[in-house]
């Protein structure tokens, strides 16, 4: 372990472990989720007085984690963001953060010059009275968070150990409600409706173990409670591998042209059993187009995918290609409208309106990105979303975040 101290008076090895913890949770198939993002934090006292909240974020692509907070001058080792806790709490108490874009509003709380906005989840880390905090979106936990009667289901799963924070609480109000709930002695974690799981501990190991334990308990609960066919059961029979490959060989070039009007795009195909079961299910068109599982997912997949109906008994590649072109045009117009209505300012012109996830009934999922990494992120994010949507619908009724909430979180995440 290094004994050198950082400019903020915190040992470098302590901050290095924080980054590693974020990457471990992000790379774990169980604790990762549709948001493909994990944030962890540690509260440390500085040599010169005052307590600092250090927040590290990580995302996972194909099992390889990458720092979500990249290196930045003044942001601390490995791109960590440090916030003066006394200033954060004062801003919450004084109402400075009410209605504000938190990554920007918290710039005055950063240690050293604010080289970049802090993660949008920083307020959640700040209000929990524990040394270490993790915010994640595991599939099974998100199934509880995305259920219409999530409060009852969460209590059935975790009892009084988990606090339920309703979706109506947003921004600074959400942070205050989480802080009050976490202060209760019997509460050891929190489920934020349509947002994610918050766990904590007095050591980094205790926090990590709490996250893993909560994820596994939710997984076991969903497996036992969500019985019966997912998403209404199968209504289509998928094509055989050879027929599917022949059809896609003709369809994919047309899709590349349809989604590459602004710039060339990379496509990734996913026809795994889980994806095929979803695109062949009766309720999949309605469930998929209801929207993202959690707001951070929209950075990778947009708020909703493009669904293409198909009757594989009589549709040929030309029919599907024409349907994709019409759907791409319709989806592009819808995304532009949502960006203009909820994005604000110049977001409508900066955001690529082309679909990032295309679901073709009976065939599979095609993700779209300007780079291979973007296409892979979109594919993985929606793979997680499929698992969550199916489980939430089997437990109760799936409920997605609103377009306005997704737009606000997307702006904050892109700013960070």
Short characterization:
By secondary structure, the chain is α+β, with helices and mostly antiparallel strands.
How would you characterize the overall build of this protein?
It is a single chain. Strand 7 and strand 8 (196-201) form a beta hairpin. The longest helix has 27 residues, at 317-343. The protein folds into two domains: 12-225, L-fuculose-1-phosphate Aldolase, CATH 3.40.225.10; 231-415, 3-Layer(aba) Sandwich (L-fuculose-1-phosphate Aldolase), CATH 3.40.225. It is an alpha+beta fold and 416 residues long. The chain is built from 16 helices and twelve strands. Helix 5 (139-145) crosses helix 15 (372-395) and helix 9 packs across helix 13.
**How many domains is the backbone divided into?**
2
Series of H and E elements: HEEEEHHHEHHEHEEHHEHHHEHHEEHH
Show unreliable segments.
Answer: 1-8, 62-78, 345-349
Share of helix, binned: 40-55%
Proportion in β-strands: 15-25%
Number of strands: 12
**How many individual helices?**
16
Question: CATH homologous superfamily of the largest domain - what is it?
Answer: Class II aldolase/adducin N-terminal domain
What is the gyration radius calculated from CA atoms? 22 Å
CATH topology of the largest domain: L-fuculose-1-phosphate Aldolase
CATH architecture name of the largest domain: 3-Layer(aba) Sandwich
CA-based shape = globular
